[in-house]
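Hey L., structure's done. Input below.
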Amino acid sequence: MTAGRWRVPAVALWRNGFAAAAAVLAAALASITVVEAIGWSPPVKLVGTEDVRVEDTIDVALDSDALYVAWPSVEPAAGIQIAMRDLDGGWAAPFAMESPGAGRYAWSPALALRSGTVGVAWVEGITNTISNPKRVMQQDEGDPSATAVFDGAYCTSVAPDLAVGGSGWHLVFAAPQSEADCTGARINLYHAFRAAPDEPWTASSVVITHSAVLDPGAQTGGIWYPRVAVADSGATVRIVWQQRYVQTGSVHESIWMVTGTTSGTTTAWSEPVRLSPSPTDAALFVRPSLLIDEQQGVHVLWTKYLGPADQHIYYLGPSSSTSRQLNLAPVGVSNRAPRYARTSIAAQGEVVCAAWHGYVGVGLEETTLRCSDDGGVSWQISDTVSDSPVLLSVYPEIGLTATGNVHAAWAEYELGGSNWMPKGVYYRSGPPPRDDGRVFLPFVTRGK
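Output:
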């Protein structure tokens, strides 16, 4: 049952009479997830049907003054589109990063914001297939052109991530050294750095090789979907990733982290550590999200995949060495792209919020939010941020402001046979959902 929704079975009412119906109703009420919905804005559609690429994720960045949302355009040469909202006002018209050129696309945007400078990284190429070489690009708002930080990436998992903090700007991505390496999943973790927006990027260097953390007996393996976070002050940078390897014919996935200390333009890296349990043939640990809070505490989310309709969201925070499950019931995903439930995490002070997409029981994906008021020690009840029963709400990204509001963005698609049809990028904001002893009924319903 989706958070905040309940349904009394009509068959039970008919067959068992009033007493049984009362028991069913009492059970339904007892199982209701209770949330605080007051203060949430209606969803805002940032972009229409024709201009959302199905390729990959969106991203969000915000500070005390402004919020930015980025998404990939469906049109060739249109590049990465960005909408900006003054937090005290409305939305400005979307603007675009440098065009990738005729016949080329851009996807996988990553945003970072500091001292009024918003930076964007992305991947561009002819298509996002193994055989087509790609470039990792970066550009700041207002710059006349983008910089190719890395040229010649293969695979579909390049997925750059960008972060900024006290030590400077850090860019990470996954790439093999050849097309053949991509076919064998031999994908390395790369890192590039600049101290300030007016400084050049260092040459991309390999932080972790594809075979650095393979378990004994693994035939091949590599790194997928790295995420990076930087401490707001000091020199610490952390990277998490999804480590894939093949052993005795089975694909295994687990979540790993490496810590760096930056001095000048050089970062020294620690030995990597595994964060998730050891993988098994039945369970895959995938798609991590990462956050460093104001006290330099580390927060990580990932998805435990047991099957398309049997996925679970796990959180690991600074208060415990053991991860905990955040979803109250198995999460399902449509088993197309995205195959796995994606996650996002944000914090402000002692408030930590986690978001993911998926459905519970039957239906189409919704975006779910769950928050903690004590730095991740205990968690309030979850809430559905999106509420579009005929559409798929996927790729959630969230941020938190000092005022306590959650800012959420996500993409929506419609399934048409085996095809995806974009329906837009949406945004809304409101306070973190909290237990308060009240029943919450859906407050927004959208059709196509």
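Helices lie at 10-31, 179-183. The two ends are 23 Å apart (CA to CA).

-- N.
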